[in-house]
User: Fold Thymidylate kinase from Vreelandella rituensis.
Amino acid sequence: MPTPIKPGKLISVEGVDACGKGSQIAAIHSHLEAAGHTVVQVREPGGTPIGEQLREVLLDSRNQALDPMTELLLMAASRAQLVAEVIAPALARGDCVLADRFHDSGHAYQYRGRGLPLAHVEALENMALGDLRPDLTLLLDLPVSTSLERMGHRGHATGAEKDRIELEAGTLFERVRAGYLERADQEPGRIKVLDARQSIEAVRQAALGHVDALLEAARNPVPASLRRHSLNGPC
Assistant:
């Protein structure tokens, strides 16, 4: 059984609603455990007792009057608590942390979606995270029309009421999707875009391929001399 990597790895999964995050996170969780890693799974907003209380406020459909800046501050508070209470200790133990959304959602939802100043979003991000960032982010990209169709089917099947964010959908989700793709263009080394229109199995295989590549790179880091050569070109 492979020895878990120390320090641990943080893997986040992002995307608009109904992109299939839940299925892929479950598959990644099982895959990592089968490989001998201890996995800590978290979600945003939430993931801690305090964070779950904030999640209720953020998603309650009765809170339509919630100001965008208040939304940003509550999200940052939930994230800061999650990092301090769960993520940082888990990574220090050498665990793999698997996050259902993380800081990229702030760029997508609060910056692009709500139109808040990027400087405000980034300042709170830095306050909540310090130097911590995901080692790998899987972005399950889905056209908004498909997202809305899936949400409709899901709601019909479960009878669940839409939360505050789902009620806004439509043009908000278009801006959110654009924000995610913009972020992926800025950080292609970390953020891997997967076409969530594909079958669950096809997306799973692609996702696990990226996870395995991350862990293999951690086991066999490139020597500093080779990194310099790759940056400077052939000798």
Notes: The first strand starts at residue 9 and ends at 14. The chain has one domain: 9-232.
